[in-house]
Amino acid sequence: MAVTEIDLAEAGPRRGGRPTRAEAARREAHLIAVATTLFLERGFDATSIDAVAEAAGMSKPTVYARYRDKRALFEAVLRERIAAWLAPLSAAAEAQAAQGGSDDVETALEDLSRTLLAHGQSPGAAMLKRNLVAQALQFPELARLAHEEGWLRGVRAVAQLLAAFARRGRIAVADPEIAADLFLSLVLGRSSQATLYGIATDPEAQERRRQAAVRLFLDGVRPR
């Protein structure tokens, strides 16, 4: 087997000291990226620590030094994927909420709904969700993690945006978190179900549904 960059990194700095923080971070990111690919391609059951170590160019003891078992590694992958999905969602919601002079609720929700669909329907997101559903009974704490760190954090990010518009009198919502949960369900519900089961969706029909979801939500929260 050829010597890889990871093999050299495992050996540490040339002078025999410990790896730098930057080297350790690169090594960790590489391991998670490889594990993510294998979990998504093969599923949880068919992916082994041996396979991850070999694909990453690391020794098994090195992997086990970071993660005690496959479940811990899968949890790390899940956390990384949740963060990757939440980052643009939270950033979009927070940016809109910070724009105190902007009263264009419809444009904000149109943009946010497009972001939601783009990330929620990516092939990687769908495959990860299938892996999670398949393991939910065996590892309920992972399903709880996805719900709390994924869905609920997404709800809170959207609620922040809705609360900002409510303070400016652009919408009327008694509970921004409930309204955010309903908005996410309207936008993602059907398409998320279809991607979970591997059912192809027509882009034009999906776009019409997205627009209708935003209009329906706005009709329900406009001040009377």
From TrEMBL:
Residues of the DNA-binding region: 48-67
Keywords tagged on the record: DNA-binding
Location of the region described as Disordered in the Swiss-Prot/TrEMBL record: 1-23
DNA-binding keyword on record: yes
Domain HTH tetR-type: 25-85
UniProt keyword annotation of DNA-binding present: yes
Pfam families, per the entry: TetR_C_7, TetR_N
UniProt xrefs under PANTHER family: HTH-TYPE TRANSCRIPTIONAL DUAL REGULATOR CECR (PTHR30055:SF146), HTH-TYPE TRANSCRIPTIONAL REGULATOR RUTR (PTHR30055)
Protein's recorded name: TetR family transcriptional regulator
Species, as recorded: Methylobacterium oryzae
